[in-house]
Amino acid sequence: MNTVSYVFGDNLYLNITNRCMMACPYCIKHKWANKFKGNDLKLEKEPSCEEVIEAIGDPKKYNEVIFCGYGDSLINLESVKEISKWIKENSGKVRINTAGLANRYYGKNILPELKGLVEVISISLNGSNPKEHNELNHPMFKEESFNEIIKFAEEAKNHIPEVVITAVEFPGFDISKVEKIAKEVCVRFKMRPYLNNEY
Ligand code: SF4
């Protein structure tokens, strides 16, 4: 409980909030007993920026420091900005994994606020159309979410050096359609394996 950071491979992952703009039925949050890569990511309270920075230690030790969750870190935008600024000042590289709904959530374009702080943004798009995306992920903005995420990915290219669209290989889900969307948006596509209760 209260795992704020954990190492996986060459990267350090940050868990700064369990809040999210989606309520995916497959999310580990429904079964916290299932650890993510051996880590219990349930937060009793969200860590302060100072606590996260202390948990990071030396960001140069890692290939990337990744805001991941379980939860969408961009729901805690001010902390993401403050922590990312510190990571950059200490020669680290920042990636954000997100559901891509932050602009809709805040009702404004937040991406310019991340300029110069974040090297990579990885946007999860599990669903190849509004209906399928809504059914698979239960997003806050229902079927409107799908187009919001695509707009977010397009806009992200103006502010963040590397934009990636990712999709999980769910059984029965035609992932090639999401790959095609990524191509149309002109961003890199990354397929992620389906691991029961992981994302
Ligand atoms: S986007 Fe991630 S953290 Fe949010 S509900 Fe879905 S699986 Fe959970």
Automatic annotation (TrEMBL):
SUPFAM superfamilies: Radical SAM enzymes. Its cofactor is [4Fe-4S] cluster. GO terms for molecular function: 4 iron, 4 sulfur cluster binding; catalytic activity; metal ion binding. InterPro entries: Aldolase_TIM (IPR013785), rSAM (IPR007197), rSAM_sf (IPR058240), rSAM_TatD-assoc (IPR023821). Keywords: 4Fe-4S, Iron, Iron-sulfur, Metal-binding, S-adenosyl-L-methionine. Residues 6-199 form the Radical SAM core domain. PROSITE patterns: RADICAL_SAM. The keyword 4Fe-4S applies. It holds the Pfam family Radical_SAM. NCBIfam families: tatD_link_rSAM (TIGR04038). This is TatD-associated radical SAM protein. It comes from Endomicrobium trichonymphae.
